[in-house]
Write a structure and sequence with these properties.
The chain is mostly helical and 49 residues long. The N and C termini lie close together (11 Å). It is flat. α1 runs antiparallel to α2. The chain contains two helices and no strands. It is 76% helix and 0% strand.
Length: 49
């Protein structure tokens, strides 16, 4: 599993959000709505395999 640096991750998030706003894709908007929750969850409780 590749681990992104936080700066890279947030830059990636911003680029996706910008595209989502331009395209107004409902499914992508839904996915981006969960992105912050997912990031917060994994930051608080790192995935253990």
């Amino acid at each position: 599993m590749v681990m992104f640096g936080m700066e890279q991750l947030f830059a990636h998030h911003r680029s996706i959000t910008a595209r989502q706003l331009q395209t107004a894709n409902p499914m992508l908007a839904c996915a981006m709505g969960h992105c912050e929750e997912i990031l917060n969850f994994h930051h608080q409780a790192p995935l253990v395999r």
